[in-house]
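Figure S7 source data.
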Amino acid sequence: MVRTVFISGATSGIGKACAEKFASSGDNIIINGRRADRLSVLKKSLQNNFKIKVFETVFDVQNKEEVFNAINNLPEEWKTIDILINNAGLALGRDYFDEANLDDWETMMQTNVNGLLYVSRAILPLMTKRKSGHIINLGSVAGKEMYEKGNIYCASKAAVDAISKTMRIDLLQHSIKVTAIHPGAVETEFALVRYKGDANKAADTYKGFKPLTGMDIAEIIYYTASLPPHVCINDLVITPLSQANAIYFQKELP
Ligand code: NDP
Ligand code: 8X3
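Tokens for the predicted 2-hydroxyethylsulfonic acid complex:
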């Protein structure tokens, strides 16, 4: 069966890898992000490589009006969304609670929490009316254990954890699956964004151990989305072998 998969934040990292993984398996994909140029390049490459259909929709998940406009105005043929991957998200800064930048906090909460809520509420009517669908939320080990200077990024991902649990309860009556995926260190643009373009600090994040790749996570997400209708994976924590949880690593440093 060919499915329609909506992926927020598909211009990079885990979201882009999910687009490639689901497309390579024959699914049609709706890709979202703020960087229109990257979405266009990705759309062309997915169409050429996998002969599937791709729809690109540029919007900022933080903007409620943009989210609802974009989703309400999807062409009819794209409204049968089977799988929603709430992936768009970011960390900004790594500072003590009393020193952190308030704008960074607001952007993280607005993107990781409110953005996920807006996209979910905009897409849900398309699922509830069909009594079918699967929502996959990107949490993090940072939402499972809190770490020093992780404050509001940790809080936003703990919120994703809680939201996923409540979604699963309230959507039981509509037969909609909810899966939360909580990765540890994945080498993407995540650290570059967190350290605001400082490539040295970003590189240090992954020094001394082998991190996960976006495709490692995409393959696991694909697995969770490809089980029989009566089977739902609720919650998965995935770390590199060298990482026990959000705090403990086995690093080999010079
Ligand atoms: P990347 O920075 O590589 O990708 C983030 C994606 O999110 C980009 O496509 C970006 O697109 C999109 N995005 C960010 N803000 C917005 C916005 N306001 N509106 C729409 N899209 C947005 O990071 P990852 O792939 O690593 O991160 C993906 C998810 O995985 C995030 O939720 C992150 O918190 C989570 N995660 C990451 C881990 C890691 O170690 N890398 C570990 C655990 C969880 P654009 O800039 O074009 O809008
Ligand atoms: C990203 C993982 O440990 O950098 O969510 O917070 S971590």
